[in-house]
Design brief:
This protein is α+β, with helices and mostly antiparallel strands and 393 residues long. The protein has helices at residues 2-12, 38-47, 83-91, 139-144, 169-174, 218-224, 244-257, 260-267, 307-324, 328-354, 364-372, 376-382; strands spanning 19-20, 33-35, 56-64, 70-82, 99-100, 105-111, 114-119, 124-127, 130-132, 151-163, 179-182, 188-194, 207-215, 273-281, 286-287, 290-292, 298-299. The structure holds flavin-adenine dinucleotide. Flavin-adenine dinucleotide binds at residues 1-3, 20-23, 27, 33-35, 104-105, 133-135, 139, 157, 159, 275, 294-296, 302, 305-309, 311.
């Protein structure tokens, strides 16, 4: 997403930009729900991708108790979209000739006035700059800043999407229309509707995005990352290989812990998958003629649902800095100067919201925030709300 945003914004200032994606097939059906923010809508419009049929609008947030009673409500209209929809909109901004599937970045040589980029296929490209939009485990960042590594937050997510058509009436009525919370100690369940396959927003054809935050220390996480064939994975397990005993334990715990309507939703998800939560702040997001954008530059925990918004804003800021300086090096320095602190603030804010989980509370401020967030009304006021960055301006 950040790569496509960057190419779109660079073309607008008259640059030629090519995107190299390691996947050899089009990226479809990946990921799940994405909360939108005013910054994302603005970046989509400004990039030329637009916001047509972006997703499903909810009017309010609700919090449920264990029995499924609504214990609090908050009026907050929000558009919920999907990774697929955003990728499709952005993908359409780029000419097929400038989008290259099956190209895995291998290494970059910095030269006096540009870069030489090597791909694992053997292809070599010379350019004025290289932009690493290659995600939290960025190979580009690994080369220019190997010391910067993602940090495990001490908790992970079970997540997945249920088809609206597979949900029983109780779930359709009690939770499907809302941005729903269920908040037992050291856990968060957050759910909302998104469009269905191929961006179908017709009633009956939509999907329901389900996220369940759980605590696990590094040892337990490592055990969970042993797959169905006994193979140990380092960071997460491809969904089809997640062990059946883990899924069975998840479903049994859901019976015990979740309100009935949310248990119904999980029951309708055929293949729940787990995502460990990491974050990091890179001290620099430009080095020589290499810049980093999106998750490669800094990776917030997902509590604000702001990752794609940040990707769009990083890309726009990079293009603006290059537009405003005839000298490319100065433009990149300006990008680093203006945007790195914003990325750091976003990550710090996500850590603040993560204190709800009660893991690694190190300072009095952490403990005070943790205490505040034990109130479900505070969670509805803080989690994935628009305009949270205003406090840092
Ligand atoms: C549980 C969860 C919930 C989230 N919810 C939200 C939300 O509600 N709203 C929101 O805005 N964000 C959300 N996010 C964050 C969002 O998904 C990311 O911030 C966003 O996808 C970042 O985009 P990116 O393009 O920087 O990185 P990525 O999406 O990781 O894309 C990186 C791309 O680079 C490619 N690549 C990697 N290595 C190489 C290489 N060596 N050579 C070539 N290509 C390579 C990959 O194949 C991939 O296509 C969530 C994240 C998680 C984990």
């Amino acid at each position: 997403m950040s790569g496509l945003f960057t190419a779109a914004f660079l073309r607008q200032i008259g640059w030629q930009a090519d995107v190299y994606e390691r996947s050899s097939i089009e990226l479809v059906g990946r990921g799940a729900g994405i909360t939108t923010h005013p910054e994302l809508l603005a970046a989509l419009e400004a990039s030329g991708a637009g916001t047509k049929n972006l997703g499903v609008t909810v009017d309010k947030r609700i919090t449920l108790d264990r029995n499924g009673n609504v214990i609090a409500e908050k009026h907050l209209p929000q558009i919920l979209t999907s990774w697929d929809r955003l990728q499709r909109l952005l993908r359409e901004t780029i000419e097929p000739a400038h989008y290259h599937l099956g190209h895995e970045f291998e290494r970059v040589e910095q030269r006096n006035s540009g870069v030489r980029v090597h791909f694992s296929s053997g292809r070599v490209e010379d350019a004025d700059i290289l932009v690493g939009g290659d995600g939290v485990r960025s190979s580009v960042r690994a080369q220019i800043m190997p010391e910067v590594q993602p940090i495990y937050a001490g908790y992970y997510i079970w997540r997945g999407t249920a088809n609206e058509a597979d949900l029983p009436p109780r779930a359709l009525q009690d939770v499907f229309p809302y941005f729903s919370f269920f908040l037992p100690p050291q856990q968060e369940v957050i759910c909302y509707p998104i469009s269905g396959f191929d961006n179908d927003t017709r009633p009956g054809h939509r999907r329901f995005n389900f996220i369940w935050y759980r605590v696990a220390d590094a040892k337990l996480l490592a055990e969970m990352c042993v797959d169905e064939n006994g193979h140990q994975h380092e960071f997460s397990v491809p969904p089809p290989l997640i062990r059946k005993d883990l899924i069975a334990a998840l479903r049994a715990e859901a019976e015990e812990i979740l309100p009935p309507a949310l248990n119904d939703c999980l029951g309708a998800i055929k293949q729940p998958f787990l995502t460990p939560i990491y974050d990091f702040i890179a001290p620099r997001i430009a080095s020589g003629r290499v810049a980093l954008v999106g998750d490669a530059a800094s990776n917030p925990r997902p509590h604000m649902g702001f990752g794609v918004s940040k990707a769009g804003c990083d890309a726009e800021a990079l293009a603006q800095a290059l537009r405003d300086h005839d000298d490319i090096d100065r433009g990149l320095a300006e990008y680093n100067r203006t945007r790195q602190p914003i990325g750091a603030n976003i990550v710090m804010h996500s850590r603040k919201l993560g204190t709800h989980m009660g893991v690694n509370l190190q300072t009095d401020e952490d403990r005070a925030m943790h205490k505040l967030l034990q109130d479900h009304r505070a969670m509805m006021d803080w989690i994935a709300v628009p305009d949270f960055l205003d406090a840092y301006r």
